[in-house]
Amino acid sequence: MKVQLFKPKYRVEECLKEIRECLEIGWTGLGFKTVKFEQAWIKYTGLKYAHYLNSSTVGLDMAVEILKMEYGWNDEDEIITTPVTFISTNHAILRNKMKPIFADIDNSLNLDPKDVKKKISNKTRAIMFVGLGGNTANLKEIETICKEHNLKLILDAAHMAGTKYTDGSLPGADADAIVYSFQAVKNCPTGDSGMICFKEKKLDDIARKMSWLGINKDTYARSTNKDGAYKWKYDVEYLGYKAHGNSIMASLGLVGLKYLDQDNAYRRNLAKIYDKEFENCENIKLILTDKDCISSRHLYQILVPKREDLISKLNENEIYPGVHYLDNTEYRMYSYAKGTCPFAKYVSKHILSLPLHLDIKEEDVKRIAKIVKENVV
Ligand SMILES: *Cc1c(COP(=O)(O)O)cnc(C)c1O
Question: Which of 17, 75, 252, 256 could form a disulfide with 190 if both were Cys (CB 3.0 to 4.6 A apart)?
Answer without folding.
Answer: 252
